[in-house]
Design brief:
GO terms for molecular function: RNA polymerase III type 1 promoter sequence-specific DNA binding; RNA polymerase III type 2 promoter sequence-specific DNA binding. With 520 residues, the protein is α/β, with parallel strands linked by helices. It contains 15 helices and 14 strands. It folds into 2 domains: 100 residues, Phosphorylase Kinase, domain 1 (2-Layer Sandwich), CATH 3.30.200; 292 residues, no CATH class. Strand 9 and strand 10 form a beta hairpin.
Length: 520
């Protein structure tokens, strides 16, 4: 669009191309060759892969062919910008001699697209370690040809004499300056002596105990509590401020009348209650078992599962999806996402996810008061409810996470229930490992559930079992699927001593520990 007739300071109309969305990279250098510039960013494929994941940072390698090159990272930002192409044209006027022959200048403005994402390199570059050895005369010798294997080599390649080259085991996880807030050391007066080591001089918890007042019981404990602590009752009365809270209390009370033992996920799947209020309500209704076959579960006050053989259907099963080449799929191939991990450190090439918004009292009461509309109450009634798949196992459906805590009664498969009820009427002793069930009951349940999940994954992703290598590793799936129970037993016996059978999945977290920390 020509802008010759527009004066200075006047807005120029530009036709927007809304169908073209672009990504901007503020490259920290002078670009003379676009292809070489893209190589430093990982190529078009690498840039597309980073752009597809909002949690990743764009990496720039100044020496893309050097495997020891440490990248600098760009942060991702949202923006609302335009990419314009402006051409300045000059036309000299003919026949006008002297200083009056001023050239005629015109500008052509064209909108190429809308920029919605921009990557900015705001951090500092880390130290670069080169595979170079300095000889005695000061001459530098490259060692890349000796430390990098680019083709199959013979044994002599690994026994050649090389100078010592040890790169750092880890680089800095931060690329932006941090204020350490250094303070001077404490200066004591003359004659001061450190106090003796005693309980009163030791530093305890860095925070006050959370006022939820839950009662924890071990399997070896003698008696179970009959009623909650008075502090727990008072805390619930303080937060029970509207009719919906009273309704939630009655619903939870009915749940414990129907079934004396519940997991927190099962409660959250049956009633809609804010998580912060559930932390206060559960200690008012039940006590928490820490060890034994009912660990990590909430048990109704006055009910002792160690004295009731019929309580075996409420025992907990710690189930983890098995993965590995012998099962036909690797952890990265599993169509089940991993939970967050305590060891999921924030690396320089990643960014933290957006934190959850704080909930105000107005948010808690919105749609819950007596003056709220019917539509608002209906919306709030299911706002915090979870899907029943978080605590119920069904054949043909994959668990939502790689590590799950199921109760025996929530295993909705007839074959699994037959294993649980093998000793009905013959329960004689309640043990800490197996409860009222026969020994190795949990192991048998895990084996059968793993077999069902393997068949489900195979039906959902048959490509994982198509290659010869994976087909060999998946022989046990084929034999089990054909009904050959003897082959299945033989495979299970061979795998009993394999440590990988019960290896925690990547990203799994200890839910029981997390729940206990909510109350201490």
């Amino acid at each position: 669009m020509a802008a010759a007739d527009w004066g200075p300071g006047v807005a120029v109309p530009v036709e927007l191309r809304r169908e073209r969305h672009m990504v901007c990279v503020e490259y920290p250098g002078v670009v003379r060759d676009v292809s070489k510039m893209l190589q430093t960013l990982g190529g078009e494929e690498g840039v597309s892969r980073i752009y597809a994941d909002p949690t990743k940072r764009l990496e720039l390698y100044f020496r893309p062919k050097d495997p020891y090159c440490h990248p600098v990272c760009a942060n991702r930002f949202s923006t609302s910008s335009l990419l314009l192409r402006i051409k300045r044209k000059m036309r000299r006027q003919r026949g006008a001699p002297g200083p009056e022959a001023h050239p005629k200048v015109t500008f052509d403005i064209e909108s190429l697209g809308i920029v919605s994402t921009v990557y900015k390199f705001q951090g500092m570059s880390d130290f670069q370690y080169l595979a170079v050895h300095t000889e005695a005369g000061g001459r530098h010798m490259s060692m890349y040809s000796k430390v990098l294997m680019v083709k199959p080599e013979k044994e002599n390649f690994f026994h050649q004499e090389l100078p010592l080259y040890i790169p750092p085991p880890i680089f800095s996880r931060l690329d932006t300056p941090v204020d350490y807030s250094y303070r001077p050391e404490t200066q004591h007066r003359e004659g001061y002596n450190n106090p003796s080591i005693s309980g009163e001089n030791l530093i305890g918890l860095s925070r006050a105990r959370r006022p939820h007042n839950a009662i924890f019981v071990n399997f070896e404990g003698d008696e179970v509590p009959e009623q909650p602590l008075e502090a727990a009752a008072q805390t619930w009365r303080k937060v029970c401020t509207n009719p919906v809270d009273h309704k939630v209390e009655e619903e939870l009370r009915k749940l414990f009348e129907i079934r004396p033992i519940w997991s927190r996920n099962a409660v959250k799947a049956n009633i809609s209650v804010h998580p912060d209020k559930l932390k206060v309500l559960l200690p008012f209704m039940a006590y928490y078992m820490i060890t034994g076959p009912w660990r990590s579960l909430w048990i109704r006050f006055g009910y002792d599962p160690r004295k009731h053989p019929d309580a075996k259907i409420y025992q907990v099963l710690d189930f983890r999806i098995r993965c590995g080449m012998k099962y036909g799929y690797a952890p990265s191939d599993m169509p089940v996402k991993a939970k967050r991990s305590t060891y999921n450190y924030s690396l320089p090439i990643t960014v933290k996810k957006t934190t959850s918004q704080l909930v105000t009292m107005q948010d808690l009461k919105q749609g819950l008061g007596p003056s709220a509309s019917a539509s608002a109450r209906k919306l709030a009634s299911n706002k915090y409810k979870l899907k029943d798949s978080v605590y119920i196992f069904r054949e043909g459906a994959l668990p939502p996470y790689r590590q799950m805590f199921y109760q025996f009664c929530d295993l909705n498969v007839d074959e699994l229930q037959k294993i649980i009820h093998r000793n009905d009427g013959a329960e004689s002793l309640c043990t800490e490992r197996d409860g009222w069930c026969l020994p190795k009951t949990s192991d048998d349940l895990r084996d059968m559930m793993s077999l069902m999940i393997r068949h489900t994954i195979r039906s959902k992703r048959p490509a994982l079992f198509s290659s010869p290598a994976k087909a060999d590793g998946g022989k046990e799936q084929l034999t089990c699927g054909s009904g050959d129970e003897d082959a299945e037993d033989a495979e299970d016996e061979d795998d009993e001593d394999d440590e990988d059978d019960f290896k925690p999945s990547d990203g799994s977290e200890n839910e029981m520990e997390t729940e206990i920390l909510d109350y201490v």
